[in-house]
Amino acid sequence: xxxxxxxxxxxxxxxxxxxxxxxxxxxxxxxxxxxxxxxxxxxxxxxxxxxxxxxxxxxxxxxxxxxxxxxxxxxxxxxxxxxxxxxxxxxxxxxxxxxxxxxxxxxxxxxxxxxxxxxxxxxxxxxxxxxxxxxxxxxxxxxxxxxxxxxxxxxxxxxxxxxxxxxxxxxxxxxxxxxxxxxxxxxxxxxxxxxxxxxxxxxxxxxxxxxxxxxxxxxxxxxxxxxxxxxxxxxxxxxxxxxxxxxxxxxxxxxxxxxxxxxxxxxxxxxxxxxxxxxxxxxxxxxxxxxxxxxxxxxxxxxxxxxxxxxxxxxxxxxxxxxxxxxxxxxxxxxxxxxxxxxxxxxxxxxxxxxxxxxxxxxxxxxxxxxxxxxxxxxxxxxxxxxxxxxxxxxxxxxxxxxxxxxxxxxxxxxxxxxxxxxxxxxxxxxxxxxxxxxxxxxxxxxxxxxxxxxxxxxxxxxxxxxxxxxxxxxxxxxxxxxxxxxxxxxxxxxxxxxxxxxxxxxxxxxxxxxxxxxxxxxxxxxxxxxxxxxxxxxxxxxxxxxxxxxxxxxxxxxxxxxxxxxxxxxxxxxxxxxxxxxxxxxxxxxxxxxxxxxxxxxxxxxxxxxxxxxxxxxxxxxxxxxxxxxxxxxxxxxxxxxxxxxxxxxxxxxxxxxxxxxxxxxxxxxxxxxxxxxxxxxxxxxxxxxxxxxxxxxxxxxxxxxxxxxxxxxxxxxxxxxxxxxxxxxxxxxxxxxxxxxxxxxxxxxxxxxxxxxxxxxxxxxxxxxxxxxxxxxxxxxxxxxxxxxxxxxxxxxxxxxxxxxxxxxxxxxxxxxxxxxxxxxxxxxxxxxxxxxxxxxxxxxxxxxxxxxxxxxxxxxxxxxxxxxxxxxx
Length: 876
Hints:
Layout: E1 3-9, E2 26-32, E3 40-45, E4 49-54, E5 59-64, E6 78-85, E7 93-98, E8 102-107, E9 112-118, E10 128-136, E11 143-148, E12 152-157, E13 162-168, E14 171-177, E15 186-191, E16 195-200, E17 205-211, E18 221-230, E19 237-242, E20 246-251, E21 256-260, E22 276-281, E23 292-295, E24 299-304, E25 307-312, E26 327-332, E27 339-344, E28 348-353, H1 366-369, H2 378-386, H3 390-401, H4 404-408, H5 430-441, H6 446-458, H7 470-473, H8 481-485, H9 491-494, H10 497-517, H11 521-528, H12 531-552, H13 556-576, H14 589-592, H15 595-605, H16 635-665, E29 674-678, H17 683-693, E30 703-707, H18 717-730, E31 738-740, E32 747-749, H19 756-771, H20 782-788, H21 795-801, H22 803-814, H23 820-824, E33 829-834, E34 837-842, H24 857-873
Parallel strand pairs: 29-30
Antiparallel strand pairs: 1-2, 1-28, 3-4, 4-5, 5-6, 7-8, 8-9, 9-10, 11-12, 12-13, 13-14, 15-16, 16-17, 17-18, 19-20, 20-21, 21-22, 23-24, 24-25, 25-26, 27-28, 31-32, 33-34
């Protein structure tokens, strides 16, 4: 059976009637409380009174009643007897809180009751001297938590909204919302003297109010700040407590950090400082796993294995350390053990003692102590879904999807991954989201569920661009999870007009703004998304684009945000090939858009010195061009753009040559063409010689070819034949530059040491062919283009180029015997053959002496593939 002990000031009866201490005003060591209620769940204390809550939901009070804070006989000035606080109608209370002279209670159905002093509206109603009995505050509904400051109150709703009231900014204030917190999954609120704190589901702490002593962290100010400050240096916090002017937090590892006023040592540091505006670890508790913390007015408690450590103000003996001297470092509370919970008041304290078997061995967080807002989990949604209680399921969906804070707290990992917020993680278990939303998607009521989800989301103020500015200006990582969660809602797959033109349109526009403001963060999150989620995200965006494009292909403000997001995802995909690049193609693009004209306009826009007839050039700096989004262009569209670019560049070069002729000679004559005279039987050497004699400006001119000894003007046909014959010759092994694999018929670099010049010439000639709108056959594998894009090669690339080599390596990797060394008889070296000459190349130092075994064969294959490409291109 739990036992209750008290310590500190007893003059007003706040500890109840203690027979052994009738003539004592202050207790320096803990004494068991006579007449305490059974099954105590929690205790809250004011300056001169105390409130007790039992596990059955009944309240009791004791102490001074000059402001009606006992909630019973209004004619009673004080009571040394612990007696019930009666609420009519069978109300079951789940949490209580005390300010200096006022109280608050939350019932299991979300109602809030308050009583005591109300001269600053701290009870949530118009100011009056006092409220002598618990009164329901009708303006507060759906409340899950409450805490009281000296003359203030803070409440948390089931929708993760935070309200404060009382003496705020030196004014008497009725409940007002801290709007910027509405996008966060708040799991606990706490109130100090004139400051407040809120804790999120991923262990972030926000503080606001007055920062006279650093209790918010940051810049010191005696002005009340409504905008919460994120305490950046804290992470993995599971509980927060506030004293009069200090703040204390507990982390998952059982460590304690404190900041604010330390004049009496309440931060656990012997250095008495009025201002500590950065969180400092209570170093003397290191090595001890703290399971709980509590703040009194100007003192602090920490519990570990039933032992209580106390530090701070001790003027009435409230620390229980056997004297009335302040303690600047954690000191063990005397003559008491097996403490499960401790409750600090202003000048007195309580200790709840349990059997040792019931003591916590791990840190106890807010989620275990208080009711929290509605957050969805897959298991919970599955239970409701399987119960066939459709009304309950609809209620859950409406509650959660109408609150951004609740969405950001839903489907989080249940382990420490929920606290990992950074470039590679956001704490969201997208697999659980996927499974949960698939339940709805496969339901016969999916359309009804979709309508409910969308209508609920429409009510979220975050999606009204002008309402919530916080997320657009300085997005916090924990506020952004909602954008990833929503990719799995059923409407993302349906893409019906009522969804796309309403919520989904606004969703993508806001997501684009947020992605722009977070820099590389979203790209990093996209990059670590498993393929199934990355594909869903990209597929949803492409479906939306395909839906909107036919009627909005000239309405650029509508399409630009979606295109920018697709561009971002395509850029991520290029680096790790999560999905085929063809998934980003808008194949209907050329049905509505003249990509040639679009590119030409783009070209002229970025080269303002050029002009063209019948082309209107935009003047605004934010002009729209489809060419800015090349990932959506399929092969045909890209080919048309490339051809247009070539023609535009040729025309530019042609005009420039004529203009330069006018400037230099006064005559409109300067050959606008690059002329090659070539012998058919010496096509390679002649081509190289012509290129060597041409300037960089010359090779941008249209090419005209004349085969020596042959008549005819080059109108395009001779030029085409020239490139075809030239590349056929270059690819022959005679020149030692390239080799053709007999099986795949792909061409690759020989690896033979050849001078750099021929390769530069081949590259230049390739560019000239494209420039002159000539298509030539160059049978290189995909690996060449991966090399140009700096994308790593894989075994699949080797299989494409050299199938026999690739299959051999596949067999090595898939062999399921334990005798790899004896079966394959390989070492860490490879054979390279050029012009009939074979040499052995080591894959690592002393590789010829290292056998390939079951344990190192994967390393062998990796090194083999890397060396294959390096050997082929080592000179270039």
